[in-house]
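can u do me a favor
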């Protein structure tokens, strides 16, 4: 099982959570960590390179801070340009078939706020439906997400624990379907 973590954070130098996660993941030689904003500072994505990376891995985790209940813009662009007709779907587009896709997100909102009736109205699982739907569309298996909430209030100890939990998640998560 080869795992690719695609990290999308527009400003990792000012990040606490995603930066800590990246530094920790980079110590694991069997994980490929690919930072989109670092690879493409002018936001011009090398589509062939990305497709090759995907072909070489079985499990793909999209790691990002939640931005307006969605992904940072470069990851949205990545979906648009990399998951092409004839490559990811449509005639001959079977390259993502059978691969596993998951999301790992950090949120400002608390766990309680991501509940029906909470400040953010919807659960994390509901907010991540677009990733789940695109996974289904390209015949990949969608994995349960990893999320870390209320990030402005987490202690250093909680951040350290999140790293342990995140690495365990990447290694052991299985599809519920
Ligand atoms: C443009 C923008 C939009 C954001 N939208 C949300 C949001 O919809 N929900 C939420 O819980 N947090 C939101 N946040 C907070 C980020 O998710 C939070 O700052 C991030 O997860 C912290 O991770 P970091 O330390 O790696 O930057 C937003 C932040 C920015 C800058």
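np, heres the sequence
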């Amino acid at each position: 099982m080869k795992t690719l973590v695609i990290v999308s954070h527009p400003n990792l130098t000012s990040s606490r959570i995603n930066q800590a996660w990246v530094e920790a993941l980079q110590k694991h030689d069997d994980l490929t960590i690919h930072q989109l904003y670092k690879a493409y500072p002018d936001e011009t994505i090398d589509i062939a390179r990305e497709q090759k990376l995907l072909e070489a891995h079985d499990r793909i985790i999209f790691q990002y801070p939640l931005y307006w209940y969605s992904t940072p813009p470069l990851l949205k662009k990545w979906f648009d340009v990399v998951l092409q007709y004839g490559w990811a779907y449509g005639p001959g587009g079977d390259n993502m078939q059978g691969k596993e896709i998951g999301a790992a997100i950090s949120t400002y909102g608390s766990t309680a706020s991501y509940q029906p009736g909470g400040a953010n109205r919807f659960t994390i699982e509901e907010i991540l439906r677009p990733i789940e739907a695109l996974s289904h569309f390209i015949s990949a298996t969608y994995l349960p997400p990893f999320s870390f909430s209320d990030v402005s209030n987490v202690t250093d100890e909680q951040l350290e624990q999140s790293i342990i939990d995140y690495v365990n998640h990447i290694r052991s998560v299985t599809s519920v379907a």
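The longest strand covers residues 59-65. hope that helps!!
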